[in-house]
Amino acid sequence: METQIIGVKQLHRDLKEISKMAVLGHSFIVVKNSKPVFRIEPYEEKNKRFGLKDFRKFQFKSKDKKLSREVDKILYTK
């Protein structure tokens, strides 16, 4: 999607609509006195962490005594 250029006054006036558009994937460059001040971009989670709900469908069947340690390493280390 193309980045839109908006002014600070427009951002102030239309913040709710601009935030909705950002969620949908739109990006904005905010300018003041014709100079770029900052960028608004959709949030992208880079390191998604998993919770217990994500693992309910998995069942571990192993005789490996170190399995729980390996699972903990995957879940709790960055």
Any overview of this molecule?
The chain has 78 residues and is α+β, with helices and mostly antiparallel strands. Helices cover 32% and strands 19% of the residues. It contains three helices and three strands, in the order βααββα.
Largest sheet: 3 strands, mixed
Q: How many helices does DSSP assign?
A: 3
Strand content: 15-25%
Q: Using the CA coordinates, give the radius of gyration.
A: 22 Å
Shape by Cα distribution: rod-shaped
Number-wise, the strands total 3
Strand order of the largest sheet: 1-2-3
Helical proportion? 25-40%
- Please mark out the parts with pLDDT under 50 across 5 or more consecutive residues, or reply none: none
Listing every helix as H and every strand as E from the N terminus to the C terminus, the arrangement reads EHHEEH
Describe the structure in brief:
The chain has 78 residues and is of the alpha+beta class. 32% of the residues lie in helices and 19% in strands.
What descriptors fit this protein?
3 helices, alpha+beta, three-stranded mixed β-sheet, 78 residues, rod-shaped, 19% strand
Could you outline the blueprint of secondary structure elements for this entry?
Elements: E1 4-7, H1 8-13, H2 15-23, E2 28-32, E3 35-40, H3 67-76
